[in-house]
Write a structure and sequence with these properties.
The complex is a heterodimer of chains A (370) and B (595). Chain A has helices at residues 7-18, 71-80, 131-139, 198-204, 242-245, 258-268, 320-327, and strands spanning 2-6, 32-38, 41-47, 51-58, 60-63, 65-70, 85-90, 95-99, 104-108, 125-130, 156-162, 165-171, 175-181, 185-186, 192-197, 211-216, 220-225, 228-233, 252-257, 278-283, 287-294, 299-306, 308-310, 314-319, 334-339, 346-350, 357-363, 366-367. Chain A has 370 residues and is α+β, with helices and mostly antiparallel strands. In chain A, the strands form four sheets. Chain A has a nine-stranded antiparallel β-sheet with strand order 6-2-3-4-18-17-16-10-14. Chain A has a nine-stranded antiparallel β-sheet with strand order 15-11-12-13-27-26-25-19-23. The longest helix of chain A has 12 residues, at 7-18. The relative contact order of chain B is 0.09.
Chain lengths: 370, 595
């Protein structure tokens, strides 16, 4: 294998794949990056067996071939070279040679035969969507996933295709985030539910150019984004029936400035119990009082904000962290929160939705003992 | 002529006296014991020349008739036992009938005694072990024994005696033990014609405050337990407070002060690793036990006792002390205001430290503060006097104190299991699971009585099915579960739906936690204990973060802060230690900076 590539191109491609390389693994070859040169392209691949990523750049291929090399060392070297053409080759002993005007670097690699093959995705359905939109949908849902390995279904984001709607849903059992989008091309006829691990999605979310094509397979999903493909195993779990728990009759509505509200929670929650982060919201026609009190420490913080509130006065308790992470994902200047009672879910939405999109978040309250 | 001869009685007595009467303090001990056995509740001790010149003990006990008095100076004359079998049940101090005979053989002794029924007192003068004079004169009911010229006829022994001050300190040490064991008896001590102290009759806590000091007592936990046929009560120091020497450990067996390594070790072990190696916890323990379980007839001074089953003794002491620490949250503390934090500050301020006096060479009659105190006419506290005899004792301030430095650099997690933190005296290693367990345990108890735990509503209510047997348990503890923050609805005879979980608990598998809790409760249900205690233990054990859970710096700091806000942050509800300290001293020793 022998090819010539500019440092900038190679470095950019390496950064794309390197985050998938597992830090700890029982299979040493997974610490390597696979390089394959062929037909004027260099393919770079990294995998942790669950998530794989492959990206290609055009290079001047002198001799086709492949090799795997330790990802960390190789990346460090390339990153620190000047932006000049590099001549990269491998010998029969799987030594990688990197030559540039001043330097000569030799790195021990391994045969590409031992590197795990990328999964084959039997295409049950394809969906094409604006990459920027997909990235935004992932960003506004994946923060709500659970980290509890005992409930694997909740550790991923649900991709749901229903007729003209693509829904992304994430929940940890105490809050839920849902994004719906209606402008995409798809050949999917039936309803389709797939749970995708967040690690793959964080790679997908990095892409925001052109169109991403999502290939749904039996056990895997593949995101095609131009020169880069992200493969991921699907979580074969049953997602809980989330629609059933989203209340539709929340009759009390609070409208407030998003930043003002988020900042107030940030300040008041400093005085909340450090574990529960519990804050109390008291709402009446014109204002909202936020209170946090730590019984153990004897600290207390209160703020009174001007808000619009429709409905009967309400006292409700919340984990401030859950509220703040929801508010941080609201892009509009104003936010609406819909309540029913002190023990039912509150629904948070932007004051107006982006075209073709619908965003909602749901946070379960904490019972106030009074 | 045969070489072997039977020794004349006066020589034999002198030899025996060597065992019983070692120094003036031994005389005081034997005579106070006699007074207590005689039912006295006022005892006045007068000392001159460190006891070398004069020891006088006046009590208001039952006294003796002249007939008895004549006999009592003979060896093996005793009123306390009459048959061998009695030895097994002995509850009085004396029974050997040796003490007075021994004392009489090495000193000039006057015995003046009167029983209530008699009009006159008998006065016996004894010289060289022989009654030299018997007269009758007026006197109060009770007995007064005057010992003069101790060891006048045993020059070797007399030469071995230390300075008057040292001998007097030994006498004070003896009196301290009796004063603790018998708060219902008034003790007065007069030395060189000055009244050193007068301890009025009182209850134990009041007496201890006077002798040990209010400050010290506020850092103790009460012990009170009945088990294995023994009753044990008293006080132990909180782990934050321990001594470098054995000086402040008192063990009383049926009212008799004894020393016993097994018992001391049991107390130390019960603290787990919450006190640094080499430190000794302070304790005052009263053990009431059937006399058949031990033999006091091992040593003439009876300071050491032989137990039939030392293992059993260990268990009795260990469990009593551990229980007192573990269930401390259920027991009202002696002084709720004296939080551990203030305790340290307080102790740091040496001006208020009663033990400070000990560093000064104490010259009674010249500088001792005790004198001023007595002269001022108050009976407030004799701590300073008593502490004088513990010259080597040093108070240790072993409280784990957090330093207000940038916390992110000062805590880190070891193998997702331990939290390591820098403290003032070195480093502290905290077991994250048991630390959280302690926090949740105390939180649960608080939830039952005062502040129920807030409930985080669940988005997806969890349905759990139980066996009928388990369901009965669930129903039984349901009201308590609700206080813990579990909002549960019952369906039919076997099913519950969990709608909300405690907000304190990490987001996780509520169903599993609940099932584990019920199982743990079932396995560990102790019918002798309050179900609240069992449930609190199950709750804390199952909902606490586990060993292996990664924690963020904030979480670790939160955990440490909460731990130190606990009433008892040193031992987990099951008795395992929570914090281990590695002091700079120890590190210095290991690196051979100091030897």
């Amino acid at each position: 294998m022998k090819f010539i590539v500019t440092q900038a191109d190679l470095s950019k491609a390496l950064v794309k794949v390197i985050s998938v390389v597992p830090t700890k693994t029982t299979l040493p070859v997974l610490g390597n990056i696979l390089m394959t040169a062929k037909d004027g392209f260099l393919n770079l691949t990294a995998t942790d067996l669950d998530v794989s990523i492959m990206t290609k750049i055009s290079v001047d291929v002198k001799e086709p071939g492949g090799i795997t090399v330790p990802s960390k060392q190789f990346n460090e070297l390339v990153k620190n070279l000047p932006n000049i053409p590099l001549e990269i080759s491998s010998d029969a002993q799987y030594k990688l040679l990197v030559k540039c005007d001043k330097g000569d670097y030799r790195l021990s690699g391994e045969t590409d035969d031992d590197y795990p093959a990328l999964p084959v995705v039997d295409e049950k359905g394809i969906l094409k969507i604006d990459a920027k939109v997909l990235s935004r949908m992932i960003g506004k849902t994946s923060f709500s996933v659970s980290s509890d390995p005992l409930r694997p279904a909740l550790t991923g984001v649900l991709f749901q295709v229903m007729g003209s709607e693509l829904r992304l849903v994430a929940t940890d059992g105490h809050r839920l985030a849902k994004m719906t989008y209606t402008k995409f091309e798809s050949n999917i006829k039936d309803t389709l539910n797939v749970i995708v691990p967040t690690k793959a999605l964080s790679e997908v979310a990095k892409e925001n150019k052109d169109v991403t094509s999502i290939n749904f397979g039996q056990n895997h999903i593949r995101f095609d984004m131009g020169d880069t493909q992200v493969y991921s195993r699907i979580l074969e779990e049953t997602y809980p029936d989330y629609e059933r728990v989203i209340p539709s009759n929340n009759d009390k509505k609070m409208t407030a400035e998003t930043h003002m509200l988020a900042d107030a929670f940030k300040r008041v929650s400093i005085f909340a119990n450090p574990i529960t982060h519990q804050v109390r919201m008291g709402m009446s026609k014109k204002d909202l009082t936020i209170t946090a009190e730590d019984m153990d420490g004897g600290n207390k913080g209160t703020e009174k904000l001007k808000v619009e509130f429709e409905g009967d006065d309400l006292q409700i308790g919340y984990n401030a962290h859950l509220l703040m992470s929801a508010l941080n994902n609201i892009d509009t200047d104003e936010v609406q929160v819909h309540f029913k009672g002190p023990t039912s879910a509150g629904i948070i939405t932007p004051s107006h939705q982006v075209e073709n999109e619908h965003q909602m978040m749901l946070v379960m309250p904490v019972r106030l003992n009074d | 002529m045969s070489k072997i001869k039977i020794l004349p009685e006066h020589i034999a007595n002198k030899i025996a006296a060597g065992e019983v009467v070692e120094r003036p303090a031994s005389v005081v001990k034997e005579l106070i014991e006699n007074s207590i056995d005689a039912g006295a509740d006022e005892i006045v001790i007068t000392i001159k020349g460190g006891g070398k010149n004069l020891i006088q003990i006046i009590d208001n006990g039952s006294g003796m008739t002249q007939e008895d008095a004549l006999l009592c100076v003979e060896r093996h004359a005793t009123s306390k036992i009459s048959a061998w079998e009695d030895l097994e049940h002995v509850r009085s101090f004396g029974f050997r009938g040796e003490a007075l005979a021994s004392i009489c053989s090495v000193a000039d002794v006057d015995i003046k005694t009167r029983v209530k029924e008699s009009d006159v007192a008998a006065l016996l003068k004894i010289h060289a072990g022989k009654i030299s004079e018997v007269t009758q004169e007026a006197g109060l009911a009770g007995t007064s024994i005057t010992v003069k010229n101790l060891f006048y006829n045993v020059p070797a022994r007399r030469n071995f005696l230390k300075t008057n001050n040292t001998e007097f300190r030994h006498i004070a040490g003896v009196m301290k033990k009796f004063a603790i064991a018998y708060p219902q008896i008034e003790f007065t001590l007069i030395h060189e014609d000055e009244k050193i102290f007068q301890l009025k009759k009182s209850d134990l806590p009041t007496r201890l405050e006077k002798i040990i000091g209010k400050d010290v007592m506020s850092y103790t936990l009460p012990v009170d337990k009945d088990q294995f046929g023994a009753h044990i009560k008293g006080y132990i120091s909180k782990p934050s407070f321990s001594y470098k020497t054995h000086g402040e450990q008192f063990l009383f067996l049926n009212g008799r002060p004894i020393t016993n390594r097994t018992a001391s070790y049991a107390v130390f072990s019960a603290y787990g690793h919450s006190i640094p190696k080499g430190d000794k916890p302070f304790f005052i323990l009263f053990l009431e036990w059937n006399p058949e379980e031990f033999d006091v007839n091992v040593h003439p001074t009876k300071a050491e006792v032989k137990f039939k089953d030392e293992q059993l003794l260990y268990r009795i002491v260990f469990h009593a002390v551990q229980d007192s620490m573990v269930t401390d949250a259920l027991i009202p503390t002696m002084d709720n205001q004296a939080s551990a934090e203030t305790a340290t500050l307080h102790l740091n301020d040496q001006s208020v430290l009663p033990f400070e006096t000990q560093r000064r060479p104490v010259q009674f009659g010249q500088t001792a503060v005790a004198h001023e105190m007595v002269h001022s006419g108050h009976e407030e506290s004799v701590v300073q006097f008593f502490s004088a005899d513990e010259q080597k004792t040093q108070v240790q301030k072993q409280l784990v104190q957090r330093q207000p430095v940038n916390p992110s650099t000062l805590v880190w997690q070891l193998h997702n299991r331990y939290i390591v933190s820098q403290i003032k005296s070195g480093i502290a290693i905290i077991d994250q699971h048991v630390a959280h367990e302690r926090i949740l345990y105390e939180r649960a108890l608080d939830a039952f009585d005062h502040n129920p735990i807030f409930s985080q509503q669940l988005l997806f209510p969890q349905t759990i099915e139980f066996t009928p047997e388990d369901y009965a348990i669930v129903e039984h503890i349901l009201p308590l579960m609700e206080k813990l923050g579990f909002v549960v609805k019952t369906f039919g005879k076997r099913t519950i739906v969990v709608e909300a979980v405690p907000a304190d608990v990490r987001l996780g598998n509520e169903q599993k936690i609940l099932l584990d809790m019920i199982q743990h409760y079932k396995d560990n249900e102790n019918h002798d204990l309050d179900p609240r205690d069992s449930l609190a233990k199950s709750f804390s054990c199952k909902t606490a973060i586990k060993s292996g859970d990664p924690l963020t710096v904030d979480e670790m700091n939160g955990l440490i802060d909460q731990l130190f806000a606990c009433k008892f942050p040193y031992v987990c509800p099951h008795g395992r230690p929570i914090i281990i300290q590695l002091t700079l001293d120890e590190l210095d020793r290991r690196f051979m900076r100091i030897t």
